[in-house]
Amino acid sequence: MTRVSGPVFFLCGQRWSVNGLTAVIVFLTIFSNEFLVYIIQSFRWPNLPVGSRDSSETQVILLVADPQIQGYQDEPGFPVGIISRWDIDRYLSQTFSLAHAYAKPDVVVFLGDLMDEGSKATKDEYKSYYYRFLSVFGASEKDKRVYIAGDNDIGGELRDMRKEWKMDRFEKHYDLLTGVDKVGFVDFIKMDIQTHGMPFVQKRDLAEELQKKITSPIRILVSHETVLPKAKVELYPLLRRLKPQLIFSAHWHKSIVFVCENCMVDDDYTWPVHRRNLAWMTEYMSVNLTINQKALTEVMVPTCSYRMGEKDMGYGVAVIESTGEMKYTVLWSPRRYTMLYAYLIVFVPLLLVHMYFKFLPYLMKKIHKRRK
Predict the structure, then answer these.
(1) What does the domain layout of the chain look like in residue ranges?
(2) Which residues is 238 bridged to in the sheet?
(3) Of 111, 157, 211, 262, which has the highest C-beta tally within 10 A?
């Protein structure tokens, strides 16, 4: 007869030791938190509204906003910093790989703030962040990519000023800050629309240069900063030249759509912009990009990182037809902080149980001696 040392439990008709039951609980918790929950979440995504994958008629765009690869300067020291960077990199890699497998995109658009400390990183730190970025988003290494710079990449927010060397460094590692990237029947227009820093005349001249390169029937302005919530007087002269039919932006870390039914006319100093929160949208919304030449829609893509202070994270997916019909949704990711709290809920009681059974014999002996 086999002896089992220590206390035992009976579960489902089976006899379990404390160590054996603990091992099973730990394994199931880690398996659920680190693997199963990601698969379950991906099953909640709506079916991709694509029939034929003919790139001349349909284009699938995967949108990545504010991944902000964590740096070294603002993170805690050893060992917390190493663990936190490893965990967010792993989270981004897993969620992006699933989103990429779901969408099988024709193009991946990175909407800025690729690095958390890109603007202030040293040369060696920047190189480290860049290679970590490539590793995290390695599932798209063979795809066509469009890169937008954010304020965390090149400066431009509060006291973090933009510098020529910061912009040069970004262009050396990623892509040009401005330009027109052509993918099939879509022109992705990259233009910095910051309302401060660059003189208006310089922006207008840049818009005129970009206008000469726009030839595709579908024109999408991609920007890190929001566009329509800004003052019309500053942006309309630029948009009138670029004539975008759709805007993708980021920066706020939220999922929002801005709709302006009468934006592309110059008979008023304001534009009536309507805002709708898309938090945890579960289906695709539809927008026709060509039916109303005066209208303009801006889709803000939420952050994909759980480190940005938002409880809802995800990746945007847009399916655009050559006819101008666009469908968009967000592929929501699991809430990582909820998963981390689950570890505390499970492991703390387990630790207390082990401590209890470890010191129980000692306490019993003490009590027995006192009674004597």
Answers:
(1) 1-43+342-372, 50-334
(2) none
(3) 111
Instruction: Report the pLDDT value the prediction gives residue 270, as an integer from 0 to 100.
Output: 77
Instruction: Please list, residue by residue across 63-93, b when 16 or more beta carbons sit within 10 angstroms of its beta carbon and e when fewer do.
Output: bbbbbbbbbbeebeeeeebeeebebbbebbb
User: Nearest CA to 18 among 342, 358, 347?
Assistant: 358
User: In degrees rounded to 5, what are phi and psi of residue 247?
Assistant: -125, 135
Contacts of 55 (CB under 8 A, 6+ apart): 106, 184
Residue 157 carries which DSSP code?
A: B
Tokens for 37, please give them: 């929950």
Residues whose CB is less than 8 angstroms from the CB of residue 52 and which lie 6 or more positions away in sequence, other chains included: 58
The three-point CA angle 35-36-38 to 5° equals 75
Paired residues of 247 in beta bridges: 221, 298
Q: What is the pLDDT of residues 307-340, one digit of tens each?
A: 999 999 999 999 999 999 999 999 999 999 999 9
pTM summary value = 0.90
Chain segment 253-279, per-residue pLDDT in tens: 999 999 998 888 777 777 889 999 999
